[in-house]
Amino acid sequence: MITGAEAMARCLEAEGITKIFGYPGVAIAPFYEALYNSSIEHILVRQEQNAGHAASGYARVSRKPAVCCVTSGPGATNLITALATAYADSIPIIAISGQVSSELLGRDVFQEADMRGATESFVKHSYLVKDPDDIPRVFKEAF
Distance between CA atoms of 127 and 135, rounded to whole angstroms? Predict the structure, then answer.
């Protein structure tokens, strides 16, 4: 049986993703381990905003969807400007962020942020995946 993080990496590979722009953190660490064991190249940026803007630039040049990845809370909120700009310019970006454990959602714990609410006006789709079995469907819809 594969983990949710491994399923995410496999879904990205199936969509032809070869590069991800990101900045790791604890809440997204399992996904980074899955990336390490995949064919996807991770491009480390110095700050989360850079991940979003780099993905946007890559999508503009390659004319294909690009992916950025950050940790939860402030890591995810740092993507907002890049996501809003990409949305306004019709640039296809898939942003992946970590989140606190499902049982802690809504308790205002360290680095919890309602990213669905924060981004709903400038993204086409936003998902909070609580069941790993939903990952293939969610990724297919995202692409």
Answer: 10
CATH of residue 32: 3.40.50.970
Distances (CA, A) of 126 to 33, 46, 73, 96, 104: 24, 25, 15, 10, 20
Longest alpha-carbon distance in the chain: 41
Provide the domain limits for residue 120: 4-142
- Tens-digit pLDDT string for the chain (143 aa): 889 999 999 999 999 999 999 999 988 999 999 999 999 999 999 999 999 999 999 999 999 999 999 988 888 889 999 999 999 999 999 999 887 566 655 666 556 667 667 778 888 888 888 888 999 999 999 99
Q: Where do the H-state alpha helices sit in 15-134?
A: 29-36, 48-62, 74-77, 80-88, 115-119
Q: How many distinct structural domains can be found in the chain?
A: 1
Tokens 């953190």 label which residue?
Answer: 25
Please state the pTM of the whole predicted model: 0.88
